[in-house]
Amino acid sequence: MSAGIVDLATAKPGRTIDNDHFASIGLTDAWIRRRSGIAARSWLPDETPLTEVAAEACAPIVTRMADPSSVGALIVVSTSVRQRIPGIAPKVAQLAGLGPSVLTFDLNAACCGFVYGLITGLSLCDAGQARSVLVCSVEAMSRLVDRTDRQTACLFGDGAAAVLLEERAEFTGFRQVAGCDGAQEGLMRETDAGGIHLDGTQVYDRAVRRMSESAQYLFDHGPAPTVLIGHQANGRILEQVRAFSAHLGVPFVNRIENSGNTSSATIPLAFAAELDAGSLPAAGRLGAVAYGAGEAWGGVSVDYRMPAGTTP
After folding, report:
1. Distance between CA atoms of 180 and 166, rounded to whole angstroms?
2. Neighbours of 73 (CB within 10 A)
3. What single DSSP character describes residue 248?
4. Is 203 helix (H, G, I), strand (E, B) or coil?
5. CA–CA distance from 191 to each of 70, 186, 194 (Å)?
6. Which residues are catalytic?
7. Strands 40-43 and 15-18
8. What one-character-per-residue DSSP string does 49-77 give?
9. Measured between alpha carbons, how far is residue 137 from residues 42, 125, 265 in Å?
10. Are the CB atoms for 287 and 294 separated by under 8 Å?
11. How far lies 203's CA from each of 69, 196, 261, 295, in Å?
């Protein structure tokens, strides 16, 4: 018996920002689509607390649980939390309807955060330290970017998604691979003046290579995933990873067009969109690979089984 994903919910509040919004900084719809594959993204109102958005993603899962007290841990993953003390996880737990006897903590691993959160949560379950674990990624990347920066302003979006991890007799063990290179910390970073610096060429090349290598590892150390979802960083990066992984013979998900880069939330949001559209079966094995600032990268393959009659 091993742990896997048994429920999923999302929150994508805020207003839709299409590419025409960036005409004021000299960007056209055609240019943005060609360079990034993005047509639209959601931006949260500046005054909306991330705790409320995260709780909106977690609450439906808690409501569907027969015994919410079985949640042993809540891991809130975010790149864009400004509040350092206290972390936001305890407040999210309260707002989502969880009791006080739950281990809660914040995790920041940039765009790799959801993969790292899955690895941590699955490990807690498989070690017998938690009966179930909630992993929630919540991002308001629109608050970090310089909205006048032609390189980054159009790339990022906001949103949240949560998954519930539990042990099931029918699940096989998860597989994971992860790595980091602190010498590359300057490739992607928040600047002192505000905004995000990206070394575009280096990030492009390294993201393709690291995510492709992580995908290959997951397939070489089976069971093989039935679907592969890469961090939705950029449409051209995704298509390069898709080309590499074509020989693996499984569907590859590219959902960046209408969501943009939501950092740690991209993988669960893309997963939910595929399930909601009926593009994936309700049960299978997810392969998720990511690359992000730090420099950090990784992948995880895990069985999933969605509850009957629910949608993300």
Report:
1. 28
2. 22
3. G
4. helix
5. 41, 10, 5
6. 111, 231, 261
7. antiparallel
8. -HHHHHHHHHHHHHHH-S-GGGEEEEEEE
9. 15, 19, 5
10. no
11. 42, 13, 14, 10
- Which two structure tokens, joined as six digits, stand for 77? 């993953």
pLDDT tens, the chain, 312 aa long: 899 999 999 997 789 999 999 999 999 999 999 999 999 999 999 999 999 999 999 999 999 999 999 999 999 999 999 888 999 999 999 999 999 999 999 999 999 999 999 999 999 999 999 999 999 999 999 999 999 999 999 999 999 999 999 999 999 999 999 999 999 999 989 888 789 988 878 999 999 999 999 999 999 998 999 999 999 999 999 999 999 999 999 999 999 999 999 999 999 999 999 999 999 999 999 999 999 999 999 999 999 999 976 666
The token duo for 188 is: 């992607």
pLDDT in tens, 194-217: 899 888 789 999 999 999 999 999
Backbone phi, then psi, for 265, in 5-degree steps?
Answer: -85, -5
Query: pLDDT tens digits, residue range 253-304?
Result: 999 999 999 999 999 999 999 999 999 999 999 999 999 999 999 999 999 9
Res 156: pLDDT: 96
- 3-class SS of residue 102: coil
Q: Using alpha carbons, select from 10, 15, 43 the residue that is nearest to residue 261.
A: 43
Name the β-bridge partners of 230: 289
Can you tell me the distance from the alpha carbon of 233 to that of 254, in angstroms, rounded to the nearest whole number? 10
What single letter denotes the amino acid at residue 197? H
CA 264, CA 75: separation in Å to the nearest integer?
Answer: 12
How many of the other CB atoms lie within 10 Å of CB of 22? Answer: 19
| Contact between residue 42 and residue 103 where contact means Cβ atoms under 8 Å apart | no
Quote the distance between the C-alpha of residue 184 and its chain's center. Answer: 22
* DSSP character string of 168-220: ETTPPPPEEEEEE-GGGGGGEEE-TTSSEEE-HHHHHHHHHHHHHHHHHHHHH
User: 167: how many CB neighbours lie within 10 A of its CB?
Assistant: 17
How far apart, in whole angstroms, are the C-alpha atoms of residue 290 and residue 8? Answer: 19
